[in-house]
Amino acid sequence: MLRGIRLLNRPGSPLARTIGRRFSTATVRRRETFYVTQPIFYVNSVPHIGHLYTIVLADAVARYAGLHGKSTKMSAGTDEHGLKIQQAAKRAHEDTLAFCTRYSDRFRDLMAASNASVTDFIRTTSPRHHRAVDMFWQQLVDRGLIYKGEHSGWYAVSDEAFYTNTQVEERVDPASGTRSMVAIESGQPVEWVSETNYKFRLSQFGDQLRQWIADNPVIYPEIRRNEVLEWLRPGLSDLSVSRPRKRLQWGIPVPGDPEHTIYVWVDALINYLTVDGYADGPLHGFFPPNVQ
């Protein structure tokens, strides 16, 4: 499901067209601008060589665009909400925000040490990002794309994700003989969860998304494009986009309903808009990204 949300974030995608006017200014200066986004790194541990590899790749692309005369923006930052962070800070006996700041600073230091040409470092705990997420959520509500409903599924705390029955399997620990359910993709343990959540009408975009991918060269190589099209063929299910506050306190509350917390992946994906000024008025002319 997360791949579907990320694809909906791309230029000309169904969701970008549905959201409408706030995105329109982004196309004004597309020939003169170039927007590269790094992933925002999760702050449950220190940086490693994989993080540095990603930073260097993004920096090379941004510098190349700059050499060709583009006005270049490169975003980076840290993803600081979610149950995993909440639990990690508790284990460390630290205030949660202080815990996030300590690890976020390590990533910022790594980017400085590698001389990466980062123009915007975003933290998802920052006030400007909170405002952007609130605005985006309200825009989805106004478009009729958010509703409240019952949600049941296999939930992996480590992945911060729900999985369907076809995405989990039972495995046996060879040492202890213990049987448990795990996510096939990540191998992480899952538990069955039933709760009332807010849901995003992702199912509404299935046909449009398949057609958009078929008509536009947005996924490479072709074998991966075909995998995504096959994954989309049966249709998309609506996506849970909140968790009850009693289960998840460390996150942005749902506007108008403090008993629910916005799902961490929804919150995190908005950072690419936050960096381009979404919460403060018209966009600066970089969104959507050229390279993610």
SSE topology sketch:
Layout: H1 2-8, H2 14-19, H3 21-24, E1 33-37, E2 41-42, H4 49-67, E3 71-79, H5 83-91, H6 96-113, E4 120-123, H7 127-142, E5 146-156, E6 161-163, E7 168-172, E8 179-183, E9 191-200, H8 206-215, H9 222-232, E10 239-240, E11 242-244, E12 253-254, E13 257-262, H10 264-269, H11 271-274
Parallel strand pairs: 1-3, 2-3, 3-4
Antiparallel strand pairs: 5-6, 5-9, 7-8, 9-10, 11-13, 12-13
Structure description:
The chain is of the alpha/beta class. 38% of the residues lie in helices and 23% in strands. The protein contains eleven helices and 13 strands. The strands form four sheets. Strands 1, 2, 3 and 4 form a four-stranded parallel beta sheet that branches. A four-stranded antiparallel beta sheet has the order 6-5-9-10. A hairpin with a 6-residue loop joins β7 (168-172) and β8 (179-183). The radius of gyration is 19 Å and the shape is globular. Mean pLDDT is 88; it is low at 1-5 and 20-28.
Structure summarized in a few sentences:
The protein is built from 11 helices and 13 strands. With 292 residues, it is of the alpha/beta class. β5 and β6 form a beta hairpin.
Give the tags.
38% helix, 292 residues, disordered N terminus, 11 helices, four-stranded parallel sheet, alpha/beta, globular
